[in-house]
Specification:
It is built from six helices and no strands. It starts with 24 loop residues before the first helix and ends in a 7-residue tail after the last helix. With 200 residues, the chain is an all-alpha fold. It has helices at 25-43, 51-84, 89-106, 126-130, 145-166, 172-193. The longest helix is centred in the middle third of the chain and has 34 residues, at 51-84.
Length: 200
């Protein structure tokens, strides 16, 4: 919130009295200008140069990197499920493609932004390990196809719920993206357990 700038007048400026001679008009004007300038610098900041504005960029980058790691883990779950149950591969293909697109959309901008994201995540970095347990676990694929689909749906649902909570503290554009991806994940969870199956 922008606070009103204090009004400084010549009457507000205390000029010390010197017995030998009175200060000149030029010195009074210079002193008043100095006080007014200091008041403007300290009281009229709009926050555009505050550390909070600079901190928004690294915060968004950290949130994007975490989101990319989680989507990459989910992508691994799709690949593992399709490998364990080849008959489900065609059904999972459109959903897997959407998750792969999420990895690219969530990737932070930067020198490496032009490169296509890898379908599988790299080894977790020390920073990701410090962030806590991943939302999408890398557990084994259940042997029964229906159970495998349920496990995949649970992973989609858990990640969608986690992103719905996370987006409250995300910057505007990223919050909208996380909301869209979370909604997509909720749809995926429904399609994975629906009797009609996944549709492109």
């Amino acid at each position: 919130m922008i606070t009103p700038c204090p009004t400084t007048t010549f009457e507000d400026v205390a000029v010390p009295w010197t017995p030998p001679s009175r200060p000149s008009r030029r010195s009074l004007l210079a002193g008043a200008a100095g006080v007014a300038g200091a008041a403007l610098l300290t009281g009229c900041s709009d926050g555009s140069g505050s550390p909070d504005a600079d901190a928004a960029v690294p915060l968004e980058r950290r949130m994007r990197e975490t989101a990319v790691r989680e989507s990459a883990r989910l992508l691994e779950r799709y690949d593992a499920t399709a490998a364990a149950h080849p008959a489900l591969a065609a059904r999972l293909a459109p959903l897997r493609s959407a998750v792969a697109a999420h990895v690219g959309a969530l990737a932070p901008a930067g020198p490496s932004a032009g490169r296509s994201p890898s379908p599988a995540p790299a080894s977790p970095s020390p920073s990701s390990a410090a962030a806590g347990a991943p939302v999408v676990s890398a557990g084994p694929v259940p042997p029964a196809p229906e159970e495998a689909l349920t496990a995949l749906a649970d992973a989609e649902r858990s990640l969608a719920e986690a992103r719905t909570v996370t987006l409250a503290g995300a910057p505007g554009e990223l919050a909208r993206l996380l909301a869209s991806v979370a909604a997509c994940g909720a749809v995926h969870a429904y399609l994975l357990t629906s009797s009609q199956g996944a549709k492109p």
